[in-house]
Amino acid sequence: MSRYLSSGRPPMGWNSYDYYDTAVTEQEVRANAEYMAQNLKEYGWEYIVVDIQWYAHNAGTRRQECQYIPFGQVEIDEYSRLWPCPDRFPSSVGGHGFKPLADYIHGLGLKFGIHIMRGVPRIAAHNKMKIWGTDRTADWISNPYSICSWNPDMYGVNPEAEGAQAYYDSIFQLYAQWGVDFIKCDDICRMDAASAKEEIRMLHEAINKSGRQMVLSLSPGPARLKEAWHYETYANMWRITDDFWDDWNLLKQMFERCEHWQNHVGQGNYPDCDMLPVGMLGKGFGEERQTRFTRDEQITMMSLWCIFRSPLMIGAELTRLDEWTKTLLTNPDVLDLLSDDCKAIQLARDEKHCIWHSSNQKSGTHYLAVFNLLEEEREIVISAGLLKKEDWNGICFTELWTGEMFTNTSKDLVLKVPGHGAKICRYEET
């Protein structure tokens, strides 16, 4: 696996979870991919990711009782490898797996990703099923005490067991044959299980052996800051939060998380603020709704994710995006902040406001992002001393969300920012 992504920025795409939960179908994935290709691809959006339980029969049918059906029927081959459920992914029938869907998405000029859980299917261990490439069986490599606390499908592997690496190698060889470009591995990032840290390394090794470049994304968070080197060495992105939803308190908490992780953002390595819960959400959860975030809060979220250089994954049903949300997601000046040429740092943060600065190392362009964490509109003073400048007088600014251009006429810069809102000002040094 290449340590660097060819796009020169964090991954940008769509993930099925926030709208469909466990129940997305092939037809729905194709429809969202078509929308992305027609409306978002030119702005850098490229990944289409099928989230959790694509292998599960009857997924979502007992949603009022449980999110994941305990010991439910799964689609699996003789070598303990999960396959797409044919009821929801009909092109997989006949041993094709996800290849027809991946081929279709590649044909649109996009990339294809899937979600997996850490470990080996429990049913494979119970039935002593084979592991490709070894004479060991699934019960031999699995750890029955290593069980995800919120999903019943898998046992963790015993990294020291003969055949354990062969299992991970075998599933990634299969994913490479399917044409998978992105792997989101769950129940691993925050290292709840004793073996999770080693299993991250095993995933990395399996991708390298597969012969196909795949982005490795680790979930859920919060990631352990003390393990930053491990994430940076063996993954491309790792969640710094638990599941992020359309709640202001969760968004406000992200400012502290980004402060802690700001020095670990680099080319091919991206601390992940999680998905963008914009547009229409929640159908698979039995609560279809428009995002609860106000427009100003959505601007705050996009501003922070972009200046921090988090991966961007849209959670909405794309085919139902309104024009305002589409504009939010396709502002080229704001998306420029994601470039690997940009280096960002937090300048100030308290309970009332937060200020970030970013500079493009190649072009010399500078950016100030100013966030109002209070409910009411207010003026925020950005002291020139924050950047060791004598003053802001005579500096020309462009506010990236409105396009407003102005020249500052005082020593300090004063911006009026909406409640829970943000402004990003671009400027050149004189």
| Rg from Cα | 22 Å
Ends distance: 42 Å
Helix amount, in percent? Answer: 25-40%
Structural class: alpha/beta
Oligomer: single chain
Average pLDDT over all residues: 96
Counting DSSP H or I runs of 4 or more residues, the number of helices is 12
How does the major sheet shape up? Answer: 8 strands, parallel
* Silhouette: elongated
Strand runs, count: 21
As a percent range, the share of strand residues is 15-25%
Strand order within the widest beta sheet: 10-9-8-7-3-2-1-13
Low-confidence stretches: none
Textual characterization of the structure:
The chain is an alpha/beta fold. The protein is 26% helix and 23% strand. Helix 6 (164-178) packs across helix 7 (196-210) and helix 9 runs parallel beside helix 10 (295-308). The longest helix is centred in the middle third of the chain and has 15 residues, at 164-178. It is elongated, with a radius of gyration of 22 Å.
Element layout with pairings:
Layout: E1 12-15, H1 17-20, H2 26-39, E2 47-50, H3 99-107, E3 111-117, E4 120-121, H4 122-126, H5 138-141, E5 142-147, E6 154-157, H6 164-178, E7 182-186, H7 196-210, E8 215-218, H8 228-234, E9 237-239, H9 248-261, E10 270-272, E11 280-281, E12 289-290, H10 295-308, E13 312-314, H11 323-329, H12 332-335, E14 342-349, E15 353-360, E16 365-372, E17 378-382, E18 396-399, E19 405-407, E20 413-417, E21 422-428
Parallel strand pairs: 1-2, 1-13, 2-3, 3-7, 7-8, 8-9, 9-10
Antiparallel strand pairs: 4-6, 5-6, 11-12, 14-15, 15-16, 16-21, 17-20, 18-19, 18-21
